[in-house]
Design brief:
Blueprint (H helix, E strand, L loop, with lengths): L3 H70 L1
GO cellular component, one term: mitochondrion
Subcellular location: Mitochondrion
Main location: mitochondrion
């Protein structure tokens, strides 16, 4: 026959183990989500940089055309 103390210890150890497993699972899930958010931010940053670079390139092309036109008129 089991004593009430041994049942209590078994119950507490099972509850503690379940709590630890749940905590680790939740922590891993939140870590994965944070890493994914970082990737999304990096992609957005690259897209913004690409748009900015295209804008600067177009601006530079416009200035080059303007300078060539001024040189032809001189």
């Amino acid at each position: 026959m089991s004593s009430p103390a041994s049942k209590l210890v078994l119950g507490l150890s099972c509850a503690l183990t379940l709590g630890i497993v749940t905590y680790v699972h939740v922590k891993q899930q939140t870590d994965r989500e944070k890493m994914h958010e970082g990737v999304v931010r990096d992609i957005e940053r690259q897209q913004r940089r690409k748009i900015e670079n295209l804008y600067l390139l177009q601006k530079q092309n416009d200035l080059t055309k303007q300078i060539k036109k001024e040189m032809e008129n001189s």
